[in-house]
Automatic annotation (TrEMBL):
GO terms assigned for molecular function: ATP binding; pantothenate kinase activity
Keywords: ATP-binding, Coenzyme A biosynthesis, Kinase, Nucleotide-binding, Transferase
Reactions performed catalytically: (R)-pantothenate + ATP = (R)-4'-phosphopantothenate + ADP + H(+)
Domain of life assignment: Eukaryota
Species name: Cardamine amara subsp. amara
SUPFAM superfamilies: Actin-like ATPase domain (SSF53067)
Name by which UniProt lists this protein: pantothenate kinase
């Protein structure tokens, strides 16, 4: 990052999970003006930026924040007088686990936001503010979905992190965690490391991209002599048992290619999540199912597997939807939780304008339409109101 640009950065937010740390921060482009509706509001143009780190490499994250002076983009903590009272919005279990570390290394306090509330807030922000954010992916076809803001709720949010949470969202601030599963991204990485010796999530995903799960998975055709079980709607290529061929192949782990193992593992977890998600949607009569979390990573194979599972179990009545910024939902929700408070309670630091705090909730956070297709983790051009 250009050092000259660091003075234009404001309001960092973090989502510190069990596997990954996600960061969102606003970077102003130096262009701001008074809102024509009020001479007390300044509109600052810039972009939301995104970054991620493995939680086990939290020191790299701390160094990234320090090097780019992001820790100076916090706000003065309530009742805080000293330098170490600068606070930054944070969510996820790591906001509690690593609070002392952030204070020791960067001199900042983590202003903790509820994890579920942040996830829902991040999704609602994206769906209401960013055009062409939601899309479906099935049989190699990606289609963007236009969602009427007046018909947004209810929906099921399936957030795939280390584990999986399934949240029924009925409105702004109205949600309930209705289910979940412990078989999520952490399971994929944990088993993947044991079975393939991969050291990172990205390495394991890349490995799976080159694999063939049919080498290890037992298919319906393997049981029925290569034919479909058409009476109950199962094709010969449907998976009857994940890793099932390992039972009778007479092989040891080292006899299998690691990419095939990774592919089978990815398929198993994705199928399981898709099925559980649909059953919960069915339970509450929800037709709209949104999948988020860094497990997906925009990987076509993962999205297609989840979509096929939802399509199969719903008999085509429900569709899986995905988000371009799926991995940063919690961090975005934490970011939008910065509220306007009285001048004495909350003050900005390292701002481009002399205003107490940015207001990035509701209609005061206005989006400038993206002019090109984002590559999932790219920036979002936007403007914010500083009041």
């Amino acid at each position: 990052m250009d050092p000259a640009a660091t003075s234009q950065i404001s309001h960092l937010a973090l989502d510190i999970g069990g596997t990954l740390i996600k960061l969102v921060y606003f970077s102003a482009n130096g262009d701001h003006c008074e809102d024509s509706r009020s001479n007390e509001i300044s509109v600052v143009h810039g972009k939301l930026c995104f970054a991620k780190f493995e939680t086990k490499k939290i020191d790299d994250c701390l160094e990234f924040i320090r090097f780019n002076i992001l820790h100076h983009s916090g706000v003065q903590h309530q009742n805080g007088m000293a330098h170490d009272k600068l606070s930054v919005k944070a969510t996820g279990g790591g906001a509690f686990k690593f609070a002392d570390l952030f204070k020791e290394k960067l001199g900042i306090l983590l202003d903790k936001e509820d994890e579920m509330c942040s996830l829902v807030g991040g999704v609602n922000f994206l769906l209401k503010t960013v055009p062409r954010e939601a899309f479906t992916y099935l049989d190699g076809q990606k289609e963007f979905v236009e969602i009427d803001h007046n018909d947004l709720y209810p929906y099921l949010l399936v957030n795939i992190g280390s584990g999986v949470s399934m949240i029924k969202v009925d409105g702004d601030g109205k949600y309930e965690r209705i289910s979940g599963t412990s078989l999520g991204g952490g399971t994929f990485l944990g088993l993947g490391k044991l079975l393939t010796k991969c050291e990172s999530f990205d390495e394991l995903l890349e490995l799976s991209h080159h694999g063939n799960n049919r080498v290890i998975d037992m298919l319906v055709g393997d049981i029925y002599g290569g034919t479909d079980y058409s009476k109950i709607g199962l094709s010969s290529t449907a998976i009857a048992s994940s890793f099932g061929k390992a039972i009778s192949d007479g092989k040891e782990l080292e006899d299998y290619q690691p990419e095939d193992v990774a592919r089978s593992l990815l398929r198993m977890i994705s199928n399981n999540i898709g099925q559980i998600a649909y059953l919960n949607a069915l339970r509450f009569g929800l037709k709209r199912i949104l999948f988020g979390g860094f497990f997906i990573r925009g990987l076509e194979y993962t999205m297609d597997t989840i979509s096929v599972a939802v399509h199969f179990w719903s008999r085509g009545e429900a569709k899986a939807m995905f988000l371009r910024h799926e991995g940063f939902l919690g961090a975005l929700g934490a970011f939008t939780s910065y509220k306007t408070q009285s001048h004495n309670d909350l003050k900005s630091n390292q701002h481009t304008v002399q205003r107490p705090i940015l207001n990035c909730s509701g209609d005061n956070f206005r989006h400038i339409p993206v002019t090109s297709n984002l590559n999932d983790s790219e920036t979002i051009e936007c403007s914010i109101s500083l009041v």
